[in-house]
Amino acid sequence: MRYLILGAGALGGYFGGRMLEAGLDTTFLVRERRAAVLTKRGLRVTSPKGDIHIDKPPLVKADSLKAEYDAIILGSKAYDLTSAMDAIAPAVGADTAIIPLLNGLDHIEQLQHRFDVRNVLGGQCLISASLDAEGDVRHFNDLDVLSFGELDGSHSVRVGAIESDLAKTRFTAQALDDIELSMWEKWCFIASLAGINCLMRTSIGGVIEASGGSIALKLYDECVAVAESQGFQPRTEARQRGRAALSAEGSPLTASMLKDIQRGSRTEGEHILGSLLKRATSAKIDTPTLEAATVHLRAYENSLANTTQA
Predict the structure, then answer these.
(1) Which whole-number Å values give the CA distances from 252 to 247, 257, 298, in the listed order?
(2) What Å distances lie between residue 197 and 86, 269, 276, 277, 303, CA to CA?
(3) DSSP character string of 73-115
(4) Cα separation of 277 and 141, whole Å?
(5) Nearest to 164 by CA among 22, 283, 306
(6) Digitized pLDDT (tens) for each residue of the chain, 310 residues in all
(7) Interhelix angle for 236-245 vs 213-229, to 10°?
(8) Do residues 221 and 228 lie in contact, with contact meaning Cβ atoms separated by under 8 Å?
(9) pTM above 0.85, yes or no
(10) 203 with 253: CB under 8 angstroms?
(11) Which of 42, 134, 169, 310 is in the most buried spot, having the most CB atoms within 10 Å?
């Protein structure tokens, strides 16, 4: 199968690097600046699971993208989704599988509307990685899971083929028949983590130290209630893991959204928290903690926009 990966940042660079390492036909769709870095330095990944250096990774830019690919791994920020869809459009054929790795679920409907329902799989990843000052990928621990599956729960031929290919890599690839439920479980946790981190401007350990642990758990329970109202009940194991992570004393755990705020950057607050709040309002569920966290992020975004326009 032929794979296209949008971007070669921390996420795309890591998974794509592992795919190239395994001999899979993988190409990165990159912008001019990233292409220049990769052409000069190659793709370099430092990881506890083994380093990678690919001197000349296969690259393509949007203006020369013509061929159709069997699968596209899409890991853009939610606020860049429109431009990301524009970029991959020439590569999407009738049978192309798009595996989006964004948090939340709003992007699924947007992708289905832009392309076709049958083009879009469910997908998510768990990884802690970033780009360093030289543009190399730094992977920080053993966690590197990429999950995907048909949204209707079937185990299709294409999912089987992708699963067979990715089994050759050194990351953990999971083909799930319940991918949408798994996405909801992650969404509830990420929204709770990001919400409490940004609301309190500190790590989970800092929240606990300030006697805010009950607020973090209340936010999580509200997010779970929203999921249940949509027909997706997070499993006991997922709830236990989520609550444990949100109540761990001394934990340095912080969501990337807090780092976005600390850098003065845009956030995915509306996509991750605002979308949950909208669903809660429609379902007439009282979610005061979720509302507070969402309004806080909206106020930050408004302030950022006003500063940029000044």
Answers:
(1) 11, 14, 25
(2) 33, 12, 17, 17, 19
(3) EE---GGGHHHHHHHHGGG--TTPEEEE--SSSHHHHHHHHHS
(4) 33
(5) 22
(6) 999 999 999 999 999 999 999 999 999 999 999 999 999 999 999 999 999 999 999 999 988 898 789 999 999 999 999 999 999 999 999 999 999 999 999 999 999 999 999 999 999 999 999 999 999 999 999 999 999 999 999 999 999 999 999 999 999 999 999 999 999 999 999 999 999 999 999 999 999 999 999 999 999 999 999 999 999 999 999 999 999 999 999 999 999 999 999 999 999 999 999 999 999 999 999 999 999 999 999 999 999 988 866 5
(7) 150
(8) no
(9) yes
(10) yes
(11) 169
What are the structural domains of the chain? 2-177 (3.40.50.720), 181-309 (1.10.1040.10)
Backbone angles phi, psi at 99, to 5 degrees: -110, 95
Please state, in angstroms and rounded to a whole number, the distance separating the CA atoms of residues 221 and 242. Answer: 10
Position 102: which residue type?
L
Write out the two tokens for 16. 């794509």
